[in-house]
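Notebook entry, structure prediction.
Reason for the run: the old model in the group folder had no record of what sequence produced it. Starting over properly, with the input documented here first.
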Amino acid sequence: MGVLEGFWVRNFKSLKQVGLGTCFPKFVYIDDETRVLPYHLNSITLLTGNNGTGKSSALDAFSFVSDCYRHGVDFACLKRGGYDTIYSHGSKGSLSFGFHYREKEELEAVTYALSIVCAKNKFPFIESELLAYQRGKESLPIFFLQNGVRSIRYLAPDEQLGNTELTKIEFTDYKNLGLASLQSHPKFPVLASLRNLFENWVLNNFTPVLTRKLDLSLSRHHESQRGMNLSGLVGYVLKRYGTEYEMFFQRIASLLPDVETILVDSTQVDRPLLAFKMLGIQQPIPITHLSEGIVRLFAYTILLEENDPAPLIILEEPENGLDWSLRANLINQIHHVFDNSQNTQLVMTTHHHDFADSLHPSQVWVFEKNQEGFTVVERASDALVLQEMMEGNQPIDSYWFSKRFGTR
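New structure, fully documented this time:
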C-alpha cells in the first residue's frame, strides 16, 4: 500500500490554484507567483473553513479524476454539468490536476499530472498526461502523453534517462486516460498502488434517510457516497466475509454504543434483513427504524474497521447527526485506526472543533475565499496567531478554531 503525499488543482470550480501537501509545480502549468505548500499529507488530514470556501470542491476534484480514470473525460464533465460549468470563471489555461504518491517505507515516489482542455463548442479532451518516477531529487518520466502522441518508457533502478530514447507510440484516444490502460510493471509496484487509489477510494457524504428503503442486493465494494449505498457496503461485507460475516458484524457491534448484537437474516438472497439488538430492549430493531446517529456511526465504523480498507477514505462533515458522545466515539475510532495505519488514509471536512482539536495543527488545512472569490488554503500550523500560541505554551484546544470561524 502507498500514501498520497499531496495533490493540487488548477481551474476547477473555485479552485483556481490550490495545493495541499507535497506538490511539484513544474509538472503543472502554473504561475511562478503561486505559493506551493511542500508538506506531506498525514494519515489523517482535515479540511475546514466556512461554508462555500471550496472544501467540497476539493473533494470533487479528486472524484473528477477518478471518474476520468474509470469512465473517461466526457463522462466526468457531463456528470457535473459540462466543462464550462466546472471551469473556473475568468481563468486561463487548462483544467489541471496532480498527485504525488509514495509506497509506504519506500524512497521512490510517483507524480501524476493531468491537463484537460476544451475548444469552443467542442468536447473536452486530454491535453497532456504525465507519470514521473521520483528518485531522490530526480524526476524520471515513465509515461507521457501530449497532443496525441503517447510515450512510454520504463527505467530500471540502475538506468539513467539519457541511455535510451523514449518510445513513441501513436495515440488517438483523447478521451480516456493513458494511466487506465498502462500495465503494471514489477520494477514499479507503486503504479499498481496508484491505480488502486483511483479505483477503490471512498467518498462518504452520508444521508441516513436514504437507508429507509434498504436494498442489500447492491454490493459494490466501498461504494458508500450516499445512504442508499450503505446497502452496497453491507452487501459487500456479506459476500467478502462469507461464513465469517457474523464475526465481523459482532466486532462492529462492540464498537457501537448500546448495541449488543447485529443480526442478519440472509435467507432472503436479494434483500437480507439487518436488525440491531439494543441494550435493555428485548425486541431487535430493524435498521430502517434505528436512530440517525447510530446508523451514521454504523456506516463509518464499517469503513474504518474493514479488514481490506479502501486506500483513501473521505468523510464529508461526519459530525452531522451525531451528539457529543457519538462524536467522541467516532473520533476515538478514527485515531485508533489511522494513527499507526499502513494501509489507508483519511481525509475529512468539518465545521466542528472536536475533530480539529484532536489533531495536530499541521494536519488541519484551512480554506478561505480571496477577494476574487477563489479558494486559498493554509495549514493551521502556519497561521501566525497559532504559532504564537504554540510558542507561548498556551493550550490550543477549541479557542483558535472558534475564534476563526465563529463556532462553538
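Summary: Residues 25-37, 216-228 have pLDDT under 50 and may be disordered.
The old model has been moved to the deprecated folder.
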